[in-house]
Every structure is written in C-alpha cells, then in structure tokens.
Amino acid sequence: MTNPGPTFSKPPRFNHIAVSVPAHELDAAGRAAIAEFYGDLLGAVEYPEMTRDRKQLVLGLHTHEQFFFIVAEDEPMRAPRMDHVGVSVSTLEDFEEVARRAAAWKERLGDQVELIEPTAEEFAGVLRLHSFYVRHRLPIMVEVQHFAFL
Asked: What is the reported pTM?
C-alpha cells in the first residue's frame, strides 16, 4: 500500500525556483536584461524591494507565491542543457504568442537566447502537450507548455 501522506486543506504546489549566476549578471544592466526578457515572455516582474545589486534578483510571476529567486555565487549553478523549470499557459493562443515572442528575442539577440522550437506531442488520444524551451542569462531552461485536453 502506498503511503497517503499528510492531509492538507489544499494540495501543496510549486512556488519558486532558485538559481545562482555570476555576480556581474546581477548588476543594473544584467538585472534589467533578465527582467525585460522574462517580463516580455511570461509577465515576470522584479520585486525591487528584494533586489540587492550584484547579489539578488527576485522576479514575481503573476502572484507573490510564484517567483524566480536569482542569487550571485562565486561558483554559480551549471545545468545540463535540458534541465528546466516548467511554466504552463492556459490557452493555445497564449502559448503561440509566448513562442512568437521567444522567437523574436532569439532573432534580436542571436546566441544570447537558446531556443528549442515548439512541438506538440499527443498522449493516448487524451492530451496534446504543446511545449518549447527557452533560456537567456539563467543557467536553466524554461519550458513553456500548454495542455490541450482532447
């Protein structure tokens, strides 16, 4: 028998990802570039009251309980190419718009943006999962997904 675990009033949910980068990525220009990119793609917003120059950047993602926590480290995080954090969007139209924006950033910034083009995979005639991966200035990819239930 599987352990049912504790009982909660609401199920726990993921709320943030923490990554480390070199300190120079968190100077004023680096923070602005990160905030602009992830803001344009996902609506992420810097919490200036939590910003510490060359030390810390926190980007909220539509609620105070979902955020990117980015800190400076002498030995910053290094992740294999496909390590990622997943973010889902509610509609196919939203997915297509975020993918379009990611492609525009890739065109504008070239090699500074890593992009794995959108795909769709069907599962047992029940789900079509749309996804793409993107990374800019962070050590980990962001996978954007849309779950289309058939």
From this structure: 0.92
- Placement of tokens 């300190």 in the chain: 23
Q: Which domains does the chain have, with CATH numbers?
A: 16-149 (3.10.180.10)
d(CA 128, CA 125): 8
Mean pLDDT of 2-16: 85
The two three-digit tokens of residue 44, written as one number:
């992420």
